[in-house]
Structures are given as C-alpha cells and as structure tokens.
Amino acid sequence: MLQIAFFSVLNGLVYGMLLFMLASGLTLIFGMMGVLNFAHAGFYMLGAYFAFTLGLSIGFWPALVLAPLLVGVAGALVERYGLRRVHRFGHVAELIFTFGVALLIDEAVALVWGRPARGYQIPAVLDVPLFRVFGASFPAYKAFMLLVAVAIFVFIFLILTRTRAGLIIQASLTHPGMVAMLGHNVPRVFMVVFGIGSALAGLAGVIAGPVLGTFPGMAQVLGSIVFVVVVIGGLGSLTGAFVASLLIGIVQTFAVALDVSVGQVLMAVGVPAGASAALHDIWKVTVAQVAPIMPFLLLIIVLMVRPTGLFGTRET
Questions:
Q1: What pLDDT score was predicted for residue 47?
Q2: Neighbours of 278 (CB within 10 A)
Q3: Minimal CA–CA distance to 206: which of 61, 108, 310?
Q4: β-strands 136-139, 129-133: how paired?
Q5: What residue ranges of the chain have pLDDT lower than 50?
Q6: Rounded to whole angstroms, what are the CA distances from 267 to 1, 11, 252?
Q7: What Cα–Cα distance (Å) separates residue 36 from each residue in 30, 177, 254, 277, 312?
C-alpha cells in the first residue's frame, strides 16, 4: 500500500505538471487578451509532431528547442492575420475562430502525418531509472518533465512580476489606451503573448509525445481537461493553474491506482451503499473506472462553491 501511495504521488505530480505546461500558455493568453483559445490543444499536438519530424534528422534535444519556436511562430501568425481581424466582433467571434483553427490543425496533421500513431524514442540519457524504491523504479524522463514544468512556472512568474516587459503585458490588458500613449505597440504585445502561449503548448507536446504517444487525437485527450484546470484554478491566474494542475493530477492518479469499488468508498465514509437494490450495479463500479470523470466532478463542485475558481477574479 505504501508503494502504491508513493508512486501515485510521483506520477500524479508528473501528470499534474504536464497539465500545467499546457495550461500555463492558455492562462497567459486569457489573462492577457481575455481569449479562451480553443485551438490551444491543437498547438500542443503540433509541438509533438514537429518534434517527431525534427527528431528524425537532428535529434531530440535540438527538436526540444526548435519545435516550440515553430509552434510559437505559427501561433503569432494566427493572431496577427486571423484573430486580430475578428477581435472587434467580440468574444463569440473569437471562440468560433479558434474552434475553426483547432479543426483545421486536426485535419492538417492527419493529412501530413497520417492517422497512425507516430512514436519517437526518449533520449538514451533519460531512458534509465532515476532511482528504485519499494522494488519499483522511477524513470529519469518523468523527473525531467517535472523539472521543465517547474522551470516554466518560475520563468513566467518572474517575467510577469519582476520585469518591465511583464508590467507592460499586464498593463496592456487593463489599460491598453494608456500603454499605447506611452509609446508601446499594444497589438504587437498581444501577438507576442499569443505566440509565447502557443510555444508553451508546443513545448508540452514535445515533452508529452514520447510518454503519452503522438497521434491525431492527442489534442482531444488533454484539451478538455486543460480547460477544466484553467477554470478550477481561476481564469487568468497562473498560480491557480499551477495548484489546479497538481490537484487534478494527484486526484486522478490516485483514483486510477485504487482497486476499490464506489460502494466500499461510500461505506468507508458512513453512507449505506447497499441500501438501494436499483443502484446495486453502480456500487460495484471501481474508483478507477470513474477516474476519467473526476476532473469534471471537481469542476462542478468548485463552481458551486466559488464561481471565479480557486484563485480567479473573473466570473467563469
């Protein structure tokens, strides 16, 4: 039991930090521009496919740098020549536009790389056990994922709170007219932020590709959960996205590891699970089977208690 708990915490941290890598870019874009980017998971998928293609010729480490940059450029171009043109029509037009971009990315990936999954190898230096405990090993690559995600959090936090560029970015959201009068190009700031957010999604794709697989449906696998993370943490809150990512990652990982039924859990907290014969089959469902819906149940609970999310100030 101790082994299950220990590795569930570690795997939960890895999964949670992967969610944060993806959610950080979405949070940055919403906090800066007020746009819920439905195409964000598509940029995540592009990062994985770009890294796969680049890795075949130049290796994993150069691809780790170049793939997010290419995705960032693609994101900046989408903002400059697409999103900026529909911005004046309001948030509904922006949502429809980004949804269309997401569909376009899905079809483009299937057209260029095909429907079968594409796999690329973890670098040899990271394809080893980092340590062994309780008779099981923890991969070095998962520790690398943790380090990258923590570095992203620290980097974004310091940029937004400790630099002049961060002050300009935050001021451009609340007082764009004043920022423009001070000589700053606000539309260019928006384009750069959208590109950075897209690049962060691409980086998450590069990191996740070897572990979760690179296939055309990978954007749908994490896309909905990332929106849950952003809403639970609070729209626009980087700290909230960080906490919500860890919360969902650990809760879902523990749920998958628990080999107990819903009825046993209910009885453990004092609920008479066997009282209704009509619900008898439901009580026999295992916690692992309901693990995929737990983030959405958590979302409902948080919205009922605190509609702005854990750290948010905007109404969701």
A1: 95
A2: 6
A3: 61
A4: antiparallel
A5: 316
A6: 20, 28, 21
A7: 6, 22, 30, 44, 15
Domain positions in the chain? 2-217
Q: Which amino acid is at 247?
A: L
Q: Which residues pair with 9 in a beta bridge?
A: none
| 138, containing H or E segment | strand 136-139
Q: How many CA atoms lie within 13 A of 307 on its CB side?
A: 3
The pair of structure tokens assigned to 184 is: 């700053």
What residue type is 187 in one-letter code?
P
Please give the pLDDT value at position 254: 84
Nearest to 311 by CA among 245, 225, 235: 235
- 148, 207 contact by CB (below 8 A): yes
Closest alpha carbon to 50 in 138, 120, 140: 120
Residue type, 316: T
Q: Cα(256)–Cα(289) distance, rounded to whole angstroms?
A: 7
Measuring CA to CA, how many Å separate 198 from each of 3, 18, 19? 37, 15, 14
Instruction: Give residue 313's Cα distance to chain centre.
Output: 20
Reading the block at residue 66, the tokens are 């170049």
* Contact call for residues 131 and 138 (beta carbons, < 8 A): yes
- Distance from C-alpha of 124 to C-alpha of 61, rounded to nearest angstrom: 11
Query: Taking the complete model, does pTM exceed 0.85, yes or no?
Result: yes
DSSP per-residue string spanning 75-116:
HHHHIIIIIHHHGGG-HHHHHHHHHHHHHHHHHHHHHHH-SS
pLDDT given at position 113: 94
Alpha-carbon distance of 250 to 10, in angstroms, equals 8
Predicted pLDDT of residue 185: 79
Q: How far is CA 94 from the centre of its chain?
A: 20
